[in-house]
């Protein structure tokens, strides 16, 4: 992977825009020179080769919230896994998740699925961080909108309701009864957090490029 990072908080600087445009131009130029069966190397895939970075949001003591309490998702926060904005629409907010490090820094996600994908390889998405720093994880109750501790929530996998990452978003519920009512309407199967492991996440990851 090329050592290029594009920050996802706020607008890109003029230098970053020029660097990004130059890189994409070089990749496209390479693709024009490459044909299947030729001796040339295949063209670079800009999306596969560039790591997009969404830095954690620092804790604000003036918020009045406890250090590890769930907090509102900032409008400009982007998911470090897929780049979506979890707070931009009411529908997106139904699926939002967040993770808080021991120092109070928070990372926000578009869905429980993205949260689980992130935590299995933290350093891949947040350079210099590791899973041992995670102090709290929260997911949004799909029906009521309340924050739930991720380890205590009940999830549904394989329903007909497509969320931000389409199939496999793992909508969260406070109780098994609520999850079963959802399954009666939309299908799927009930899971606990302990059931969501690497093999399942690999199958549910719908991003075009699993590498990051």
Automatic annotation (TrEMBL):
From what superkingdom does this record's organism come?
Bacteria
Kindly name one Pfam family recorded for this protein. Answer: NosL
Q: Which InterPro entries match?
A: N2O_reductase_NosL (IPR008719)
Where, if anywhere, are coiled coils annotated? Answer: none
- Protein name per the record: Nitrous oxide reductase accessory protein NosL
Which source organism does the UniProt entry give?
A: Roseateles oligotrophus
């Amino acid at each position: 992977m090329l050592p290029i990072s594009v920050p996802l908080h706020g607008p890109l600087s003029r230098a970053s825009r020029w660097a990004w445009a130059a890189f994409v131009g070089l990749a496209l130029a390479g693709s024009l020179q490459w044909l299947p069966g030729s001796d040339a190397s295949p063209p670079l895939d800009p999306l596969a080769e560039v790591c997009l970075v969404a830095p954690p949001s620092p804790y604000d003591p003036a918020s009045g919230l406890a250090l590890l309490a769930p907090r509102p998702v900032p409008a400009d926060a982007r998911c470090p896994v897929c780049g979506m904005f979890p707070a931009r629409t009411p529908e997106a907010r139904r699926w939002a998740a967040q993770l808080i490090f021991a120092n109070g820094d928070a990372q926000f996600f578009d869905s429980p699925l993205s949260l689980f994908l992130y935590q299995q390889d933290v350093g891949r998405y947040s350079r210099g961080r590791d899973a041992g720093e995670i102090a709290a994880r929260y997911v949004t109750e799909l029906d009521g909108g309340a924050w739930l501790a991720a380890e205590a929530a009940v999830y549904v996998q394989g329903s007909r309701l497509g969320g931000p990452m389409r199939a496999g978003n793992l909508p969260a519920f406070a109780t098994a009864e609520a999850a079963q009512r959802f399954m009666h309407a939309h299908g799927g199967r009930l899971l606990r957090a302990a059931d969501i492991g690497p093999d399942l996440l690999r199958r549910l990851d719908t991003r075009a490029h699993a590498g990051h």
